[in-house]
Write a structure and sequence with these properties.
elongated; alpha+beta
Length: 265
């Protein structure tokens, strides 16, 4: 398991720092940092970044602007670019990626899933926010990003039901009621899936292009893990919704396909 390289405290005082080098394949090092959201925000916000990168969230605990600025200055001094060059490189990749993967969902009733993967040429970053606000950043080679994003999803086996397809026109609010030969309408069939109890669910989207410039979605997939059954992926086109049983490798394949499409952007 990757160890933390730097962890901030919950006070304005500068956080203790512990540096560890973790070797990767081919002699490429992996660097990991875990920071409270308050410290991440202090390093992140600036003229080019006026909001947190989705799907992360941040609500300052400081009531007064001067308290916030004091903490921001202290954090930037502690994690200065000359001492934490790789950390600032990771933040730059998040700010200006060529492609990115955004995951937002939930596990159970209370645990949110907030995961972000960013690629800028050969290097990449995988970041995730834990319950309570801490954000972990991992600087890796670009080819590892998709796999590490998938590794952070809940484990679940494929669902037991066959692939199902629905015409979007049949699910519209004003769609005429059409009964199938088995006596179940398209709306009722789809509602049975989407209203079933879920152990986890979420949406994963891949974007091509700069965060603050010309960008487009190259792939989106919705997953849900039905209690007592398994995982399903839902993908949509203008005319069709497809729901199919899937494993983690199926999600990984969708990401790779979307990332390949992003290279043509």
């Amino acid at each position: 398991m990757l160890e933390r390289l730097a962890r901030g405290s919950d006070t304005v005082r500068a956080p203790p720092i512990r540096s560890v080098r973790i070797a990767g394949q081919g002699g490429t090092g992996l660097r990991t940092w875990t920071l409270p959201a308050e410290d991440f925000a202090a390093l992140w916000f600036g003229p080019a970044n006026d909001r947190m990168p989705f799907p992360f969230r941040f609500l300052s605990r400081f009531a007064l602007a001067d308290e916030y600025e004091a903490h921001r200055t202290k954090t930037r001094d502690t994690f200065s670019a000359d001492r934490f060059e790789d950390l600032h490189h990771a933040l730059h990749i998040i700010a200006e990626p060529r492609a990115r993967i955004e995951v937002y969902g939930r596990r159970g009733e209370r645990e949110e899933l907030r995961i972000l993967g960013c690629i800028d040429g050969r290097p990449g970053v995988v970041a995730s926010q834990r319950r309570g606000g801490d954000i972990t950043l991992q600087l890796v080679s670009a080819e590892k990003v998709a796999g590490l994003v998938v590794d952070r999803l809940p484990e679940a086996g494929p669902g037991s039901k066959r692939v199902q397809r629905f015409a979007t026109s049949a699910l519209a609010d004003d769609a005429p009621f059409v009964m199938r030969t088995d006596g179940v309408s398209e709306k009722a069939r789809y509602a049975k899936i989407v209203n079933a109890p879920r152990a986890s669910e979420g949406t994963l989207s891949v974007y091509a292009g700069p965060r603050h410039g010309d960008q487009r979605v190259t792939g989106t997939v919705r997953w849900y893990d039905l209690v007592g059954d398994g995982r399903y992926l839902e993908t949509r086109t203008r005319d069709t919704i497809e729901v199919k049983p899937a494993a983690l490798n199926d999600i990984l394949a969708r990401i790779h396909k979307a990332l390949k499409a992003s290279e043509m952007h």
